[in-house]
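Exercise 7.
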Amino acid sequence: MKKLRTTISNWIDMLDTAWQAMPVKKQRRYTLILFAGYAALSLTVMLKVCYDIAKSNNMMTIEHIENPVIKQSKSPVIPQDSLTTILKPIIK
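Solution. The predicted structure, written as tokens, is:
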């Protein structure tokens, strides 16, 4: 685990050194490009959410909740609630 931590720490230090060695103009360009990508992705997600909300029919169906355990098992045994099971305490 220590070896992994030192490997990651060395890699981060190498990236930081490469970033500091880069000219300021190039740093600004990369920062601007990353921000533009983030803004485009955020705008795309917001437009998709707005489109999905506008497209929906705003109808909500209310149904009873069915127990999936009973639905899947074909056995006649009905599962019991664990709260109704009385367990005897073990006295030593």
